[in-house]
């Protein structure tokens, strides 16, 4: 899910100083492309009723339907024309600073490898399907695109405050697992949900996980799980609102304040929380 690793290692052999590698699109096998096609059509059969409409229009504008794994060069050409973003390949998780630096310059880092046919439902490390199908469609949306860049800049700044951990929670609870309001109902937009066959319906329909209105302080105090469906979800009003509520706040005093407050466990409900009902099926 492209939560950056914490090391400040040198790039691996074969990677550039900024950790990028050539995608080598021509090296993918027919089986690799077939895995993308299966994952793509399986998700797209589900998503129209579940996902933020901006995700669908982004996927369409970028030509993600294939056939096959997208060529980052062609994908980046289209994306650059829309919002100035591009997609670059990396060997795996990259150090925080490298990750933030790319985002701050409107480059999204994506794994080049694709899962095996035996791992269609679950894998530990983000692959090209999670990274590209999950994350890239919304980068065609101008406001979301600005949010991701602001996040990268905020990350570079947060390194000076040793506050990456708090900032990572913001990423997790929005970019990876966020929900968004759609009138009286909810839709998914986080990449970890939209790229998951099981969680895309669960996140909206299951009665168990509380769905809590986005609040910056609340989000940065809340723990998350990386090994199971999320025990709770945060709900934004709109991408405009998310950008406004993060961009206009100086996080420096917030990081200091949060150090004095206890973390909140997953799925706990606190007195100030505004909760949303789960969607009815159908
Ligand atoms: N406003 C944040 C700061 O002062 C930067 C930021 C913007 C972080 C948007 C995340 C998202 O550091
Ligand atoms: Fe991710």
Brief write-up:
With 282 residues, the protein is of the alpha/beta class.
Provide structural commentary:
It is a single chain. The longest helix is centred in the middle third of the chain and has 18 residues, at 142-159. α4 runs antiparallel to α6, α6 (142-159) packs antiparallel against α7 (164-176) and α6 (142-159) runs parallel beside α11. This protein has helices at residues 30-46, 53-62, 72-83, 96-104, 128-135, 142-159, 164-176, 191-194, 199-205, 216-221, 239-247, 251-259; strands at 86-90, 107-111, 179-182, 185-188, 211-213, 233-236, 275-276. The radius of gyration is 18 Å and the shape is globular. With 282 residues, the protein is of the alpha/beta class. The chain has one domain: Aromatic amino acid hydroxylase (Phenylalanine Hydroxylase, Orthogonal Bundle), CATH 1.10.800.10. The structure holds phenylalanine and fe (iii) ion. Fe (iii) ion binds at residues 1-2, 126, 130, 134-135, 176, 191-192.
List the ions, cofactors and other small molecules found in this model: phenylalanine, fe (iii) ion
Quick one: CATH superfamily?
Answer: Aromatic amino acid hydroxylase
Structure class = alpha/beta
Kindly report the CATH topology. Phenylalanine Hydroxylase
H/E topology pattern: HHHEHEHHHEEHHEHEHHE
- Return the domain count: 1
Uncertain spans = none
Biggest sheet strand order reads 4-3-6-5-7
- Count of helical segments? 12
Which percent range describes the beta-strand content?
5-15%
Oligomeric state of the chains present here:
single chain
Average pLDDT over all residues: 95
Q: How would a crystallographer describe the biggest sheet?
A: 5 strands, mixed
Helix content: 40-55%
Determine Rg (CA atoms, Å): 18 Å
The general outline is globular
């Amino acid at each position: 899910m492209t939560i950056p690793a914490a090391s400040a290692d040198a790039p691996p052999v074969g990677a550039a100083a900024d950790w990028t590698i050539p995608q080598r699109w021509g090296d993918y096998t027919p089986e690799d492309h077939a895995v993308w096609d299966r994952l793509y059509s399986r998700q797209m059969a589900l998503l129209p009723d579940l996902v933020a409409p901006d995700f669908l229009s982004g996927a369409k504008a970028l030509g993600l339907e294939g056939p096959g794994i997208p060529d980052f060069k062609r994908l980046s050409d289209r994306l650059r024309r829309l919002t100035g973003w591009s997609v670059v390949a990396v060997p795996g998780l990259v150090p925080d600073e490298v990750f933030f630096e790319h985002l701050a310059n409107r480059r999204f880092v994506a794994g080049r490898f694709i899962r095996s046919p035996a791992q269609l439902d679950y894998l530990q490390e983000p692959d090209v399907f999670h990274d590209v199908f999950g994350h890239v469609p919304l980068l065609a949306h101008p406001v979301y695109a600005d949010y991701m860049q602001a996040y990268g800049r905020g990350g570079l700044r947060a390194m000076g405050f040793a506050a990456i951990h708090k900032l990572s929670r913001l990423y997790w609870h929005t970019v990876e697992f966020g929900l968004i309001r759609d009138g009286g109902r909810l839709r998914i937009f986080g990449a970890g949900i939209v790229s998951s066959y099981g969680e895309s319906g669960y996140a909206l329909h299951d009665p168990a996980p509380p769905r809590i209105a986005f609040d910056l302080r609340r989000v940065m105090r809340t723990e998350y799980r990386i090994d199971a469906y999320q025990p709770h979800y945060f709900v934004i009003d709109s991408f405009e609102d998310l950008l406004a509520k993060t961009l206009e706040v100086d996080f420096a005093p917030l990081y200091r304040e949060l150090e004095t407050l206890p973390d909140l466990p997953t799925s706990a409900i606190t007195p100030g929380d505004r909760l949303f009902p789960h969607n009815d099926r159908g």
